[in-house]
Amino acid sequence: MAFFSQNKFDYFPIALIIGAIAVVSMMTFGNLEKEEILGFINFNTLIFIFAMQIIIYFATHDRVLEYLAIKLIHITKGDNRLFFYVICLFTGTMVAFVEDLTLSLIMVPLIYRTCRALEIPAGTYMMGMTITINIGAILTPVSSLKNLIIGEEFKWGFGEYLSNMGILFLITLITTIFLMDRFILKKEEKPTEKNKKILISMLDPKIVIENKKYFTMTIIVVLATFVIMFLGFEPALVAIISAAILLLIHYKDTSFSDIKNDIVWRIIIVFAVLFILSNSLSHFGFSELISSGLVSLLNDNIYLAVFITLGISSLLSAFLAGTPVTIILLPIFSTFINFGEGFFPNPIIIAFISGVNMAGNFLPQGSACDLLTLTLAKKYKVVNLDYKRLLK
């Protein structure tokens, strides 16, 4: 679940300025009331962002993800190929439910320490992790904010995502892991039996558990959250209830005032502004104008429609933050689907989801996870991972 893909650029002041200009313009020249402008905001998404940050805070604080990761690494018993496969499958699957940056922050140090104990370079394993995270982001409506926003627009829940994106996810994930293993990993040095034994003696998943009660309760709440979402309940409602339950469970040691500084409030404000801008385009007919032009150009050619959707969404998301791109393009593609009489919507929606999520596998700056992984690799002085290698 990614919020932004460009960490080096601060969208907040620009969003506030543009938002203020847009609201004043709509009230002055568009004769819109404040209530109508507020109606442009998708509050379900904002509530989901807020609640999931609380859930992820407790999952991280109680070391749930770290425990699972160490447990899996321990199972590999130092076999570097099995370690690579486990890391890629774990991150590619977990990112469907956990925010990508949190996952990367937990996994990169673990991968580095594991590779250091095995005396093998860590770059390929980190690269496999970040690539499969981008692939896994297409799988569920809560994999990323992009998916949640698209899912709400086209009424896609867990069932629709899994049935439409599941096969693409499996094919892409398995093919990527196989090709990286065959053409990259096989050429790299393997750990010695001595180093494998050292690793096994060092790793004990239980050492990360500081409070067994909190650890167990947090696992139960997090699992229940995603199971209930999978059953078709509104993600925002489920997330806010789960966040409240976790706050109640931890009330003796942690209050909301203790974690409020860990909540990224500016993201919520930026998204509110983006929703106003994007839905105002639709309200004043700009989305309809662009969409009708595209429909005329395509002449009901579904293959060309899919190609253009994938091209535009992936190209913009590779250079800009994927979620704002999704919010801006959504009214256009939504109108585009409605205008195209010969269009079956699912292929276009699949192309849209794939484009905005997997753009980071074309250019690293298109993914926050890629940039974070490169930053951490530089911090740990990983010799075989840099921007050029990830770009290739």
What is the helix fraction of residues, given as a range? over 70%
User: Spans of 5+ residues with little confidence (pLDDT < 50)?
Assistant: 1-8
Average of the residue pLDDT scores:
85
Strand content: under 5%
Shape: globular
Question: What's the number of domains?
Answer: 1
Q: What's the story with the biggest beta sheet?
A: none
How much is the radius of gyration in Å? 22 Å
- Total helical segments: 20
Could you spell the SSE succession in H and E letters? HHHHHHHHHHHHHHHHHHHH
Number of strands: 0
Structural classification:
mainly alpha
First-residue to last-residue Cα separation: 24 Å
Features of this protein?
392 residues, mainly alpha, 0% strand, 20 helices
How would you summarize what this structure contains?
The protein is mainly α and 392 residues long. The chain has helices at residues 12-28, 34-38, 43-61, 64-76, 80-94, 100-118, 123-136, 145-154, 158-183, 193-202, 212-230, 235-249, 256-259, 265-283, 286-298, 302-319, 322-339, 345-358, 368-379, 387-391.
Describe the structure.
With 392 residues, the protein is mostly helical. It has one domain. It is 73% helix and 0% strand. It has helices spanning 12-28, 34-38, 43-61, 64-76, 80-94, 100-118, 123-136, 145-154, 158-183, 193-202, 212-230, 235-249, 256-259, 265-283, 286-298, 302-319, 322-339, 345-358, 368-379, 387-391. The protein is globular and about 75 Å long. The model is unreliable at 1-8 (pLDDT under 50).
